[in-house]
């Protein structure tokens, strides 16, 4: 699947099921992950520009202001997707 980090000018291929944070780390995208991927810090928040990620879960919801936001450490690849890194 094709993952595009639009504000970084970077595209990557990723297998379904991996987290967006794992994709970012594997391809050198400078994404903060202060809590280490445990949905506790909100530094990995991204905006979905186009496409789809796994459904939002209850762990993420307290951190998200609107539907297009996701925590990269919780969102898993399910299809092609384009995201923009957002300030935590
Ligand atoms: S890495 Fe901390 S919330 Fe995602």
Please explain how this structure is put together.
With 88 residues, this protein is mainly beta. The protein has one domain: Beta-grasp domain (Ubiquitin-like (UB roll), Roll). A five-stranded mixed sheet has the order 2-1-5-3-4. A hairpin with a 4-residue loop joins strand 1 and strand 2. The longest helix has 7 residues. The model has no long low-confidence stretch (mean pLDDT 94). FE2/S2 (inorganic) cluster (FES) binds next to loops.
Number of domains: 1
- How would you name the CATH homologous superfamily? Beta-grasp domain
How much of the sequence lies in strands comes to 25-35%
Spatial gap, N to C terminus: 26 Å
Widest β-sheet, arrangement of strands? 2-1-5-3-4
Bound molecules: FE2/S2 (inorganic) cluster
Portion of residues within helices: under 10%
Largest sheet: 5 strands, mixed
Round the mean pLDDT to the nearest integer and report it. 94
Number of helices: 1
- The structure class reads mainly beta
Multimeric state: single chain
SSE pattern: EEHEEE
Unreliable residue runs? none
Query: What integer value in Å does the Rg equal?
Result: 11 Å
Please write the CATH class name.
Alpha Beta
Q: From the coordinates shown, what is the CATH architecture?
A: Roll
């Amino acid at each position: 699947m094709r993952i595009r980090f639009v504000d970084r000018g970077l595209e990557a291929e990723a297998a379904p099921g991996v987290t967006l944070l794992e994709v970012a780390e594997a391809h050198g995208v400078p994404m903060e992950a202060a809590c280490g991927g445990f949905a506790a810090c909100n530094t990995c928040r991204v905006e979905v520009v186009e496409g789809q990620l796994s459904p939002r879960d209850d762990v993420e919801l307290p951190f998200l202001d609107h539907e297009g936001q996701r925590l990269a450490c919780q969102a898993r690849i399910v299809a092609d997707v384009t995201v923009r890194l957002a300030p935590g």
